[in-house]
Amino acid sequence: MVARKNVIVMQYQLVKSNSAPLAL
Questions:
Q1: Hey, what's the torsion of the CAs at 13, 17, 20, 21, to 10 degrees?
Q2: Is pTM, for the whole model, over 0.85?
Q3: How distant, in Å, are the alpha carbons of 1, 3, 11, 15, 23 from that of 20?
Q4: CA distance 8 to 24
Q5: Residue 17 carries which DSSP code?
Q6: Distance from CA of residue 17 to its chain's centroid?
Q7: Any idea what DSSP says for residue 24?
């Protein structure tokens, strides 16, 4: 469960970083 949670956090951070340029 911990590993899966880490993967979800990684994906969320990727989406957040990918959305940042669009927001700017």
A1: -160
A2: no
A3: 28, 26, 14, 9, 5
A4: 24
A5: H
A6: 7
A7: -
